[in-house]
């Protein structure tokens, strides 16, 4: 999806998940996939990511606000946070993502929500 010049960052706190992504990327000979093992500090440059896909994760986080702040930091000003959490209700999702005014709801789909970065 990102093309030959794009980059995919797979971020997870679970080493097994990181190993699975590395293995799949190797099997499929994907050279533009980089894994990052972390709880929230990605080490990526500020305003460097076009799209974040954040799926079925928010409900499990001990400190969700730290993760949301990091996503806000790394997203480009016109970047999109694509969000889904099957374990949360719509009002919980919108509150969880827009809390602290880091993001604004852009569009609601059937299963996903698109948020844009709020420049505060």
List keywords for this structure.
120 residues, alpha/beta, 4-stranded mixed beta sheet, two-stranded parallel sheet, 6 strands, 32% strand
How would you describe what is shown here?
This protein is α/β, with parallel strands linked by helices and 120 residues long. It contains 3 helices and 6 strands. It has a domain at 50-63 and 76-117. The chain has helices at 15-27, 64-74, 90-98, and strands at residues 8-12, 33-37, 49-55, 75-84, 103-108, 113-117. Helix 1 links the parallel strand 1 (8-12) and strand 2 (33-37).
Amount of helix? 25-40%
Continuous helix count: 3
Morphology call = globular
What is the straight-line distance between the termini? 30 Å
Radius of gyration of CA atoms, rounded to a whole number: 14 Å
Uncertain runs: none
* Class from helix and strand fractions: alpha/beta
Main beta sheet: strand number and arrangement?
4 strands, mixed
Percent of residues in β-strands: 25-35%
What is the number of beta strands? Answer: 6
Mean pLDDT: 95
Cross-sheet strand order for the largest sheet: 3-4-6-5
Order of helices and strands: EHEEHEHEE
Summarize the structure.
The mean pLDDT is 95. A four-stranded mixed β-sheet has the order 3-4-6-5. A two-stranded parallel sheet has the order 1-2.
List the helices and strands and how they pair.
Layout: E1 8-12, H1 15-27, E2 33-37, E3 49-55, H2 64-74, E4 75-84, H3 90-98, E5 103-108, E6 113-117
């Amino acid at each position: 999806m990102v093309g030959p010049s794009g980059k995919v960052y797979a971020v997870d706190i679970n080493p097994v998940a990181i190993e699975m992504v590395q293995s799949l990327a190797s099997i499929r000979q994907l050279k533009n996939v980089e894994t990052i093992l972390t709880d929230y500090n990605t080490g990526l440059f500020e305003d460097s990511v076009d799209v974040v896909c954040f799926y079925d994760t928010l409900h499990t986080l001990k400190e969700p606000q730290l993760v949301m702040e990091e996503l806000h930091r790394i997203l480009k000003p016109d970047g999109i946070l694509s969000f889904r959490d099957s374990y949360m209700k719509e009002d919980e999702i919108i509150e969880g993502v827009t809390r602290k005014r880091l993001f604004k709801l852009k569009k609601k789909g059937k299963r996903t929500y698109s948020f844009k970065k709020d420049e505060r």
